[in-house]
Structure formats: structure tokens, C-alpha cells
User: Fold this.
Amino acid sequence: MALTPLKNLLHHALQEHYAVGAFTTFNMEYTRGLVETAEENQSPIIIMFGTVETDYAGMERLCSIILQEINWSKVPIGLHFDHGNSYEIVIKAITSGFNSVMFDGSHLPYEENVDITREIVRVAHAVDIAVEAELGLVGGTEGETGIEEPNTETAGLTDPDQALDFVKKTGVDALAVAIGTAHGLYRRKPTIDIDRLIAIRKKVSVPLVLHGGSDTPEDKLLSSIDHGIAKININSDLKAAFTRSLRSSLSNAPDDIAFEKHLSQATKAMKRVLQQKMELFRSSGKALGLLTHSF
Ligand code: CO
Ligand code: CO
Assistant:
């Protein structure tokens, strides 16, 4: 049983100067690939999904598949609901087995984001579930894996003073910040505002989260880890490896109907990219330290 609270995962990451990768899954094969790679690299991870995957597989069904894999595994793993866009869906996530949830009210007027987030924190904390919220606008479309323009509008980026006010008023456990990344793959190189991250870090002590980590320059990811990012969300990079492999495997052997073989190949391709992420985030080898840490 290695289902691990978000707080422990992120506390240990901050303390040991690494980031926990949060990876989006949508089915059993993919989930197994995530867990196996975590075990092979002795890395803590967070497995997550959001509304797109809920529509595909069903929230409770996918949760129960993931929880079974987590129960069988020996490395610390969190199960996180990504980008909940309403009070109702986040409450549903809490009752479906996630041990942390994100409410994303970043598109709402500020006071409304504060009010709903605060109420969700109140309910979630009563049943020991951690809450991530978001302030500022990360580019691209949540849950989608399209080609996106990086967010270059300073206006949409997280304001450090507002971040302090938000964390104080809501009591969130982790805060997703907008510092120039976008969801999906990039049309052109993003500008990551590390100075802004440093300014936010000075004001706010909760662990910070970077969304849109795919396709982002590695040096920027590393320096974001150095400045308080404890969780990095990745979807597109893994899905691209999976889908490209599946496409070539199917077209290389058009008469081979053993779909499980094609799927295994695709999962292997995804696992190779995942391993690189764990190395990059410096989470490889951190599982034991986390499991034996006293919180
Ligand atoms: Co996101
Ligand atoms: Co400690």
C-alpha cells in the first residue's frame, strides 16, 4: 500500500530539492507503465487525470484501476484529480478515491476563485484530502494535447502579492502558478519567467506546481525546481511517445491483429520518456527516503 498523501510527496520534494512528476493516465496499460517505471527508478510519482479522461473511462472506474495498481506497488504514489472546474466535480472526485484534488478557478473573477477554493479546502480537509488551486493563466487547453502558443502575456501570469493573499484566504496545500508555460506542445519556444517564480516563492511557503511541463526547455524546468516548484505536470510528452509508437507499430505490421503487442510497444516507448522525466526532475532514487521520512 503506497498511496501517499500529496503533502508528504511535496514536502519531501522541497526538502530534497527535486520535483515529483504528475502524469496523466487514461487506461490500465498506461497506468501500469507509469507504476512500473516508478518502481524501476525507485521514484515517487503522482498519477492524475481530469475531465477528458473521466469522459473517456469514467471517474470511479479509472480511479479503481489506478488504486489497485498503487496497492500492488512499493513506491510512494499520489492519486490526483487534475483541473476540476466546478465545486460539484471536485466533491465527486473526493468521494471517488483521489487523495488530492485540484480546483481550477483561475478563469473566474479573483474573489469567486477565493470563495469556491476556500469552501473546497474546508470540505476536503475534513476528510484528509489535499487541495491544489491555480492562480494566473497557464496557456493552452487543460487536458488537451494540441500544439499551443506559449503564454507571453505578463497580464495573465501569477501576481506574487495576490498569491500570498490567495493562500492565506483559502488554506490550499499547493498552488499552481502561471509563469509562461502552456498545456500541450509548443508552436514556438516559451519564455519562462523564473524571476516571477522567485518573487512568488518569497511570499508563499506552500509547494508550487508547474502545469504545462511538456516540451518546456530542460534548463528552465531545473531552475524552476531550484525555486520552489515541487510538482511538475506532464501529459503531452508521454502521450506523444505512446501515440507515435502505436502509429508506427500498426503501420509496420498492418496484418498483425494482436493489439496487445502494439499496446505493449507503445507503453514501452512511453516508459522511456517517463524515465527521462524522472531523471530530469531528480526524483529517481527518492522513493526509499520518502517512505522512511518521519512526517
Ligand atoms: Co494543467
Ligand atoms: Co521533513
